[in-house]
Amino acid sequence: MRSNTMAAGTVAELSDSLLNGRNRYQFLATFLVNISPFVYGIGIGWMSPVMRALQTPDSPLSFEVFVEEVSWIGSLIGIGSLAGNILAGFLQDRIGRKPILLALAVPNMCFWLLSYFAQSVEYLYIARFFAGITGGAGYVVLPMFVSEISDAKVRGRLGSILLLSVNIGILVGYILSTNVDYYLAPFFVLPLPICYFISNLFLPETPFHLINKGKFGAAEKSFRYYKNIREDDKSSMLEFEDIKLKLTKERTLNVKGLHYKDFVAPPALKAYAIATVLIFATEFTGTFCFASYMSDVFALSHTTLDIGMCTIIIGVIQIVGTYTTTLICDRFGRKILLLISSLGCGICLAAFGSFTYFAERYDLSSVGWMPLLLLSLDVFVCNIGLVGVLFVVLVEVMPAKIRSVAVSAFVIVLSITVFVSLKIFPLCMQYWGISITMWSSSLVAFVAFVFFLFFLEETKGKSMLDP
Asked: Which of 437, 329, 424, 319 lies closest to 376 in space, CA to CA?
């Protein structure tokens, strides 16, 4: 027993352990702020089977919903996300990261209240819009918050917890919709955003933002908290003084603000290209669409397995994939994960499309488990790279001077692609068929693989102050 305790203590004190003295409050803060994306994920996962149920005679609601309306219910989360992106991007440098983090609880609760009181399809439209605001604002402010409180050695793992939280929430949502009555589900979930708000009241603002606002005393306290440094430990504060000096000097040299030349410099243009390919690869390989329309995908896949069981298994695979990212992201780097992810995704989607093509022409019921296997592999490889390190890479590739503005802008691009992909995905499956839809997504993944192979540079260990 004593040797086990000593071993646990040794692991906790490793310099890159999330539980050592230096990192534990960074991990705690990251855990607390990720309650919001967890609840957001529950809404996504819960709505996926619900949208299919709304189109059947056994609909839990009193009104009928058609395919075109389902595509709007699914895609309006993208419009809400766009609104959240713009609001958070505009406000985060003005009022700080923390107020926006606290505000995420409000639209989160609105989603569940509107879903509960829905009297027509318009209620569900507005509910999904509010859910999108939560996700969109969170996708802007959470990566910035986590990157600004984290040490470089653990930043990749802490940053990847965002998508892990969403995926855990999606799985909980799948299970909730399968086992709990439509009108009971909101009562299980609504306490979570309230707990999120209360717990995050006690977190300090990030030291980076406080320094930029000239609040050096508060910034020092924040730095000491997140790095777990005692007040009498003067030597450990040299890092803070270095950060303060660099940020203050940068602010002094740029009193007039950013110049358009900062946004068209070669490093910036290269970062834009990487961010664009990364976002398009993540969304148009169908990763987020699968989470929203998982039940419909399996219904068209000619599987002989229970659709509800398949959906829950995929939810588990998503979690395993993003959790794997948190374990290996800072060890092997971002580029290798994106290469494995995009290539594996392309192969799996091509195979999935081929299976459904032949299943429409021949009896493949003897291998009716194949769609679950192929989609499980696809979801796993997507989540270890394209999904798992999306926001980590998006923050790290941007030059420090334009990072806040550029990341906000590209999260807006992400929201637009979310809306477009969610709007067209059910329509593509209806008019093109599932096989052509999957082959098209496969092509996007292969193009992304080639781009990452030749143009993406590793960002592991990059300082947040590097140009």
From this structure: 319
How many whole angstroms separate alpha carbon 356 and alpha carbon 370? Answer: 10
DSSP H helices in 54-116: 67-95, 97-103, 105-116
Token pair 């992201």: residue: 329
CA atoms within 13 A on the CB side of 380: 14
The total number of residues shown for the chain amounts to: 467
99-158 pLDDT, tens digit each = 999 999 999 999 999 999 988 889 999 999 999 999 989 988 998 899 899 887 888 788
112 vs 412: which has the higher pLDDT:
112
Q: Which of 22, 192, 197, 166 is nearest to 98 (CA)?
A: 197
Residue 423 pLDDT > 60: yes
Distances (CA, A) of 319 to 30, 109, 171, 376, 382: 17, 24, 8, 11, 11
- For residue 462, the tally of other CB atoms under 10 A from its CB is 16
Cβ(419)–Cβ(340) under 8 Å?
A: no
d(CA 397, CA 391): 10
Q: Give the contacts of 242 (CB within 8 A, at least 6 positions apart).
A: none
Q: Which two tokens stand for residue 210?
A: 């406080």
The DSSP call for residue 236 is G
Contact 357, 435 (CB under 8 A): yes
Helix (H, G, I), strand (E, B) or coil at 383: helix
Q: Is 1 exposed, middle or buried (0-12, 13-18, 19+ CB in 10 A)?
A: exposed
11 Cβ contact partners less than 8 Å away, ≥ 6 residues apart: 17, 19
Q: Which residues of 289-327 are buried (b: 16+ CB within 10 A; e: fewer)?
A: bbbbbbbbbbebbbbeeebbebbbbbbbbbbebbbbbbe
Q: Which two tokens stand for residue 19?
A: 């539980």
Collapsing DSSP states into helix, strand and coil, what is residue 257? coil
Give how far Cα 234 sits from Cα of 128, 220, 231, 239, Å. Answer: 50, 12, 7, 10
**What are the structural domains of the chain?**
14-203+265-455 (1.20.1250.20)
Query: Who contacts 427 (Cβ-Cβ below 8 Å, separation ≥6)?
Result: 71
